[in-house]
Amino acid sequence: MAAQPTFAAPSPRPARPAIHAEVSPPEPVLIPDLLHPTPMRRIDAAATKLAISLAFASGVSGGLFGDALDRATVAPSTWEPRSFASDLFLASFVQRCFTIRHGTEEAALSRHHLTNLLANPPADVAVVHHRRAIVAELAGSPALRRELDKLYQAICRLRTLLEGATGIGKWDANRRQLDILVVVKEILDGMAGGFGEARSGLARLAAFGRRVQAEEPYRSLADLLRYDEELATLNLKVSVGADGRIRAFEVLSVQEDAKNPFVSSPWKRWLGKIELFLRGFSFGEGEVMARLIDAVFEGLVDEIVPLVQLMGDLELYLGALGFVDRAAAAGLAMSLPELVRSTEGRLLERLWNPLLLAHEVTPIPCDLATDRHDTTVLVTGPNSGGKTRLLQSIGLAQVLAQSGLMVPARSARLALAPALVVSLIEETKADQTEGRLGTELVRIRGLFERLPPGAMVIMDELCSGTNPSEGEEIFELVVKMLARLTPQAFITTHFLAFAARLEREGKITALRFLQVELGPEHKPTYQFTPGVARTSLAGHAAARLGVTGEQLMSLIDRNVALANAGAGKRGV
Amino acid sequence: MATFLTTAKMAPELAARVDDSVHGRHRHGRPRRARSGARLVSLVRLAMALALASLVGTVLHFQREDRLALERTRASLLDAVRRPSAALTDNDRRKIAVIEDWLGRFAGIYEGDFVADELRAPHGLDAALRRDAVYVRGPIAAFAPAGAVAAAAAVSSKDSFVRCLVDPPASRAEKAMLARVLASGADDGNTAHVQRLDDGEVTLPILLSAWSQAVASASDAATLAARRRQLEKAPVERGVLALKSEVLLVAMDEPGTGKGPTELDGERAHDVRVGVVDLAAARVLLRVRRHVDPTWVSEARRPVYASALDGCALALDVRERVTAR
Question: Do B23 and A279 touch (CB under 8 A)?
Answer without folding.
Answer: yes
